[in-house]
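Quick one - inputs below.
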Amino acid sequence: MTPGPVDGTVRVGASAGSYEVRVGSGCLASLPDLLQSAVGAHRYALISDDDVAALHGDAVIARCRDAGLDAELFSFPAGERSKTRKSWSILTDRMLAGGFGRDSCVVALGGGVTGDLSGFVAATYLRGVPLVQLPTSYLAMIDASVGGKTGVDVAAGKNLVGAFHAPRFVLADTDLLTTLPTSERVQGLVEAFKHGATMDSSYFDWLSEHAARLIAVEGDVATEAVLRSVRLKAAVVTEDEREAGPREVLNFGHTLGHALEAASDFQVGHGTAVAAGMVLEAELGERLGVTRAGTRERIALGLAALGVGLDVVAEIDIDVALGFLGTDKKSRRGRPRFVLLEELGRVHREGGWSREAPETMVSEVMAEVAGSV
Ligand SMILES: NC(=O)c1ccc[n+]([C@@H]2O[C@H](COP(=O)([O-])OP(=O)(O)OC[C@H]3O[C@@H](n4cnc5c(N)ncnc54)[C@H](O)[C@@H]3O)[C@@H](O)[C@H]2O)c1
Ligand SMILES: [Zn+2]
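Output:
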């Protein structure tokens, strides 16, 4: 007997109205119907980076036009360097020149960069038009397309200018992952391991066991991972849309992860840095007596199955990384804060979702992990 389909739908709560995230192999076929029933716009501006546009843009446009929808493709150069106010102004100017009115809808087809940039276009265009997210990377499916955060990077830092703008719906067709470069698959899957480490230890174990198949996008595993991650993230953002409380758990591994990323001058991928950040923060929690002994080891083993090691900690200058800690957006009064685990699958909560740690201890943890590589 063949196993049944694992595709499914998750509902996410948002102040502007809840929305559905549909996940599955081939689910993009339902795009025209969903656009008609959930949006009903007069025109659709499909925004995509030029790599994704070349691979999948024409097919999505053709699907829309075959169903009688007015859809036009707008592309921008691929990469984080395009997530800027300049790209935002070029895209909004092109839409204005094209006569897109208030009854238009922005459809983001791409990774997290496309989702964040297009989302900010949708949030601001004529004071806001509907947005639909069609994520194409693991990172965007698992993380960026859910939760309504949009924005751009500025000289002072990443994601510092933006808006909350929830999508009308999200359609994550896992077939699109087969064209995603392998290194990008690995980087994005790290966030799924973070969901498991903070909220569901059996999911963490399942991910570790299926890491090779997830990287190969084999069978139903990609759909199962995206669904499980979206369910976990949806529960958190539904409870805490504006990041005042529980949403903070999603920052596990990110305080030290961001410091490592910055210390490497962004040469190291976000996933690689966050993976090391999770191991470091688990060790920090163990030393502070809040995290169950052995948690660091379990996290490191799971991430090793994904093929992500800790070399980055040995390669960066620890003092430079420590210097970036106080500038982290989660810091209060210049003091960095850490989301710590109680055990695998559960975040420690005592007087808040994050806490400070002595800088000497953070430094010792980094030195010890660097020495263990
Ligand atoms: N809004 C949020 O809540 C949130 C959460 C996490 C991350 N983010 C943001 O997401 C961004 C990172 O996302 P990302 O890793 O997807 O980056 P990305 O959008 O740059 O995609 C990574 C690379 O993969 C390519 N790509 C994407 N899908 C592809 C496909 N199916 N086939 C072939 N190539 C494909 C892209 O062209 C790009 O070169 C960052 O800017 C980050 O700040 C946002
Ligand atoms: Zn992250």
